[in-house]
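Predict the holo structure. Ligand: manganese (II) ion.
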Amino acid sequence: MKSVLFTRFFILLPWILIVIIMLDVDTRKPAPPLTPRPYFSPYAVGRGGARLPLRRGGPAHGTQKRNQSRPQPQPEQQLPTIYAITPTYSRPVQKAELTRLANTFRQVAQLHWILVEDAAARSELVSRFLARAGLPSTHLHVPTPRRYKRPGLPRATEQRNAGLAWLRQRHQHQRAQPGVLFFADDDNTYSLELFQEMRTTRKVSVWPVGLVGGRRYERPLVENGKVVGWYTGWRADRPFAIDMAGFAVSLQVILSNPKAVFKRRGSQPGMQESDFLKQITTVEELEPKANNCTKVLVWHTRTEKVNLANEPKYRLDTVKIEV
Ligand code: UGA
Ligand code: MN
């Protein structure tokens, strides 16, 4: 009798263990996400909508509220659209730069990317890239005239103007929806907080830029909420001593100043920003962001030129690979 009980126990033991393990697995909490939620998550759109607390047409969470007939305000729709104009040109690091940029932009709600190629035609690489980027975007192109492709001359003048022209054309006939324009060079580094700051731009807003002008940062100096000067190590005489990455303009201002563009004629190196801003605003009018311009939320990073010394002159690989 004792031995029968003994063998039964050993037959049942594995099953008991399996049940215990199953119970344990079921009751375990789901693993935390790999990255913590950013604290400004209301502005970040999760692709599956999981992060967005208030989204129209989503699964019915609050079923009781569904029958209240008055439509609820749509926070996502009320957000002003951020239009990011990015000039870009073909070079070995182009796709890498655009990939980093898209990875940032994809986390910003209500952003429209205006990508302007410095080229005679839209390239296949950028077209394919944008088609897969998962972002609302517009793909433009305009070549920089050969005579302007020289060291020391301003870059991307024609491309930024093409972006401005597209914006004005698009909003020609309709009353302007709230929007903010920002010039986002393809090689800079942008924090997500920056977009949160610029979204509330009423006319023209400004903030510090890191790693620029031969210093760790440049910034507008602010007193009593107004810009009164510039902390800069380079050409402090500039009317707006600020990099292209250091300001945003409301769509309304762009539309009500239809002639404001970037100019080639008479423009000195480093004066593009001032020449443009002079046409649409004054220093007194500027709106300081980033805690009265005391926080660096964007960096003027520059990518090292790649070493292609060992690249064969004629293709040796058996397949063609896009880099
Ligand atoms: C600095 C400023 O940060 C730029 O905003 C300004 O346009 C530039 O100087 C200038 O000299 O005009 P920097 O890092 O020296 O920037 O310039 P890049 O990053 O080489 O170029 C700025 C943007 O123009 C980039 O998005 C780049 O892809 C684009 N670009 C550059 C072109 O579209 N075509 C070119 O031939 C060169
Ligand atoms: Mn740059």
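The radius of gyration is 27 Å. Residues 86-89, 118, 144, 149, 154-156, 159, 185-187, 243-244, 272, 300, 302 surround uridine-5'-diphosphate-glucuronic acid (ligand 1) (CB under 6 Å).
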